[in-house]
Amino acid sequence: MALPDILFYLFAFLTLLFGALAVANPFSRNPVTSAMFLVLTICAMAGLFVLLNAFFLAAVQILVYAGAVMVLFLFVIMLLDLKEEQRRKINLFGIVTGTGAVLGLGFLLTRTIWGGDLNQAANPRVIGDTKALGLELFTKGQFLLPFEIVSVLLLVAMVGVILLSKKELK
Amino acid sequence: MNVGLEHYLTVSAMLFCLGLLGVILRRNVLVIYMSLELMLNAANLALVAFSRFNENLTGQMMVFFIITVAAAEVAVGLALIVALYRKRQSAHVEDLTSLKL
């Protein structure tokens, strides 16, 4: 097995393991633990992005997700001073039907992925470095309008957050 | 067997199912929100994998925009949760039933 394949299996295993620990940790039900494992999941996923030659997106993934977004999450968790999730009345019916639905969805997705003929190149070229991405974004004209709209969206989100966080909502 | 598109899509599907499981099983609003982020990331992984194996950068551009919008979305969502917590003093979904008929 070639080195990229070994690395794929390693990162895929780490991503799924940390993801499972973030979602359903058998040792701790503290939101902080979930958040820290989510950071590890995102970092392992950045490794998968590097294996897919999406170098710029791997960097952005770590900077924006593991950096900014998760810090925001931790900040809010600390701010709210959340206690451990107490075990309340366990709704067995909900758990069984929910898990069944998720397993069914997973089965369907896996069947679709492995059953159909995926249109893929045999030996894909290496694309996805920062220069190619920048050229695609700024020179073809296809993504210029979405880019400007996203900047407006960020401004709108910022104003909205300030409004929502004010002491009294009028 | 060489690692191909199927393998990446399988990881993405499993990650999506994990996130969905978290949304269904956990009772804390913040943890549910984190599980939603996990599902979003699974979709990103699928898009990047498609982009790589079809030699087309459009998938990566899509992920670029998704990450930007997700950052804004997280900020708004967390502000909503803080406002909700201030009103109700609880982050449990079972305590947040004012929309229930």
Write up this protein.
The complex is a heterodimer of chains A (170) and B (101). By secondary structure, chain A is mainly alpha-helical. Chain A folds into three domains: 1-81, Four Helix Bundle (Hemerythrin (Met), subunit A) (Up-down Bundle); 90-117; 125-170. Chain A contains six helices and no strands. In chain A, helix 1 (3-23) packs antiparallel against helix 2 (31-51). Chain A is globular and about 55 Å long. The mean pLDDT of chain A is 86. Chain B has three helices and no strands. In chain B, helix 1 (5-25) packs antiparallel against helix 2 and helix 2 (29-53) runs antiparallel to helix 3 (58-88). Chain B is elongated and about 50 Å long. The relative contact order of chain B is 0.13. The mean pLDDT of chain B is 89. Chains A and B meet through helix 1, helix 2, helix 3, helix 4 and helix 5 of A and helix 1, helix 2 and helix 3 of B.
What is the CATH class designation of chain B? Mainly Alpha
Number of helices of chain A: 6
Q: Major beta sheet of chain A, specifics? A: none
- The oligomeric status of these chains comes to heterodimer
CATH superfamily descriptor of the largest domain in chain A: NADH-ubiquinone/plastoquinone oxidoreductase chain 6, subunit NuoJ
The helix-and-strand class of chain A reads: mainly alpha
Q: Figure out the total of helices of chain B.
A: 3
Question: Quick check: average pLDDT of chain B?
Answer: 89
Layout of helices and strands, plus pairs?
The complex is a heterodimer of chains A (170) and B (101).
Chain A: H1 3-23, H2 31-51, H3 55-80, H4 92-115, H5 130-138, H6 144-165
Helix pairs in contact in A: 1-2, 2-3
Chain B: H1 5-25, H2 29-53, H3 58-88
Characteristics:
heterodimer, A: 170 residues, mainly alpha, Four Helix Bundle (Hemerythrin (Met), subunit A), 3 domains, 6 helices, 0% strand, globular, B: 101 residues, Helix Hairpins, 3 helices, elongated
How do you describe this structure in short?
The complex is a heterodimer of chains A (170) and B (101). Chain A has 6 helices and no strands.
